[in-house]
């Protein structure tokens, strides 16, 4: 049975061939720690890391490569931002749709730094109203943390308007771009975003174990860092260097992973995010339309007027989400993700929480129309339609 992978929202698979080659090549022929030596391979490794940072900065239109901090994954980037920015008794505005990688650090900050959190409820179309954000800002509001796109319904938030509201009020913004980076163009030259957290292993097509955090110039001055240690620079000083990105990067990098990420970013640059967005939108449209035609299937989100990425949640009458996903895999080789997708509030909002969540199909750079047709045929067969 051929494997049809529709869980790109968890991590992208397959990766471009160049990503596999880059990781293997690094491990086999370079193999050294980055920024710690002056021999030939060390220089090659440093160049690779610099290129990766430059490509990420170019993709996001960041001011300069040193605004990009490498992390372990999206969760690590979000932790670095939230823990770094929030001080005792700050007020934070976020949404009910967030992933646990935002909700749990915020809960910790509430328990241990006494922060106050306002959770915004989306409108019926799944989007947050920027006016609601404005109305919740207080003198103590330090941060607005909002996702760019939902990992449950794919709904894209009006982050341009939300971040503009925050900027006007002198409040920092953190955007969780886990489901948008590499899928939608992101222009930090235009968007007033202060912190942007991305996994490297989803839409950016790098290997697992990679991630990045963009920090707008000056924002780092008000941030603490929980990761401290060797940087290969200013080694005589027992304080962490102030300079970016060393300020937030301590210890050895995941150099093989970053070699892969550099290749993933190069692939994106060549294919272009706009072309990919178009291809994924066509696949998603067919997927949603096909699912809606099957009796007994309920699709959540994906309303015509609301922009979305290629993440589609649905349920099949008579089947628990986990049961349906497991039959789809066992009998048809269709690999989907079922459950709450680490976003319990999103499922409460959709009314799917008590039913154990939804089944989720998510497309990626290598999903084909044939994959979508086979997935639809399998759901049809499962429902007996
Ligand atoms: C919306 C959202 N935020 C954050 C994350 C966490 O990313 P990572 O798995 O790289 O830690 C995910 C991943 O599932 C996500 O979908």
Briefly characterize the structure.
39% of the residues lie in helices and 15% in strands. The protein is of the alpha/beta class.
CATH topology of the largest domain: Aspartate Aminotransferase, domain 2
Question: Could you report the average pLDDT, rounded to the nearest whole number?
Answer: 96
Determine the number of helices (DSSP H or I, runs of at least 4 residues). Answer: 11
Count of domain modules:
2
Bound molecules: pyridoxal-5'-phosphate
Structure description:
With 385 residues, the protein is an alpha/beta fold. It folds into two domains: 255 residues, 3-Layer(aba) Sandwich (Aspartate Aminotransferase, domain 2), CATH 3.40.640.10; 111 residues, Aspartate Aminotransferase, domain 1, CATH 3.90.1150.10. Helices cover 39% and strands 15% of the residues. It contains eleven helices and 13 strands. Helix 6 links the parallel strand 5 and strand 6. The mean pLDDT is 96. The structure holds pyridoxal-5'-phosphate.
Task: Supply database-style keywords.
single chain, 385 residues, alpha/beta, Aspartate Aminotransferase, domain 2, Aspartate Aminotransferase, domain 1, 2 domains, 39% helix, globular, binds pyridoxal-5'-phosphate
Secondary structure: elements and pairs:
Layout (H helix, E strand, L loop, with lengths): L3 E2 L11 H14 L9 H21 L7 E4 L2 H12 L5 E5 L4 H14 L2 E5 L9 H7 L4 E7 L11 H10 L3 E5 L18 E5 L11 E5 L39 H17 L1 H20 L4 E4 L10 E6 L4 H12 L1 E2 L1 E3 L4 H7 L7 E5 L6 H15 L2
Parallel strand pairs: 1-11, 3-4, 3-5, 5-6, 6-7
Antiparallel strand pairs: 2-8, 7-8, 9-10, 10-13, 12-13
Helix pairs in contact: 1-7, 2-7, 3-4, 5-6, 8-11, 9-11
The chain binds pyridoxal-5'-phosphate.
The site of pyridoxal-5'-phosphate has 14 residues, from helix 3.
């Amino acid at each position: 049975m051929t494997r049809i992978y529709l869980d790109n929202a968890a991590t992208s698979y397959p990766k471009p061939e160049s990503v596999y080659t880059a990781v293997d090549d690094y491990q086999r022929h370079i193999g050294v720690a980055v920024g710690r030596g002056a021999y030939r391979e060390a220089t090659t490794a440093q160049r690779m890391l610099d290129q990766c940072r430059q490509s990420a900065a170019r993709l996001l239109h960041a001011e300069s490569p040193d605004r990009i901090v490498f992390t372990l994954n999206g969760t690590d980037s979000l932790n670095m931002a939230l823990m770094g920015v929030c001080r005792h008794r700050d007020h934070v505005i976020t949404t009910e749709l967030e992933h646990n990688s935002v909700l749990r650090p915020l809960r910790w900050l509430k328990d241990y730094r006494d922060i106050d959190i306002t959770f915004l409820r989306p409108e019926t179309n799944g989007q947050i109203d920027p006016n609601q954000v404005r109305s919740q800002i207080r003198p103590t509001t330090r941060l607005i943390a909002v996702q760019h796109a939902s990992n449950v319904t794919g709904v894209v938030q009006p982050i341009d308007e939300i971040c503009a509201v925050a900027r006007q009020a002198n409040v920092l913004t953190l955007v969780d771009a886990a489901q948008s980076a590499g899928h939608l163009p992101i222009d930090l030259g235009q968007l007033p975003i202060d912190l942007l957290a991305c996994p490297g292993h989803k839409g950016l097509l790098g290997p697992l174990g990679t991630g990045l955090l963009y920090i707008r110039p000056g924002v780092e001055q008000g941030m603490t860092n929980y990761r401290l240690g060797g940087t290969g620079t200013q080694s005589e000083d027992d304080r962490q260097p102030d300079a970016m990105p060393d300020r937030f990067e301590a210890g050895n990098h995941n150099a093989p992973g970053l070699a892969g990420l550099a290749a993933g970013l190069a692939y994106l640059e060549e294919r272009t995010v706009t072309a990919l967005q178009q291809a994924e939108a066509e696949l998603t449209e067919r997927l949603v339309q096909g699912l809606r035609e099957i009796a007994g299937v309920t699709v959540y989100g994906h309303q015509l007027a609301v922009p979305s990425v290629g993440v589609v949640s649905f349920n099949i009458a008579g089947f628990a989400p986990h049961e349906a996903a497991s039959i789809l895999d066992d009998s048809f080789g269709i690999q989907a993700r079922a459950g709450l997708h680490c976003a319990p509030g999103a499922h409460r909002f959709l009314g799917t929480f008590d039913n154990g969540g939804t089944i989720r199909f998510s497309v990626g750079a290598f999903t084909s129309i044939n994959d979508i047709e086979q997935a639809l045929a399998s759901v049809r067969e499962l429902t007996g339609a």
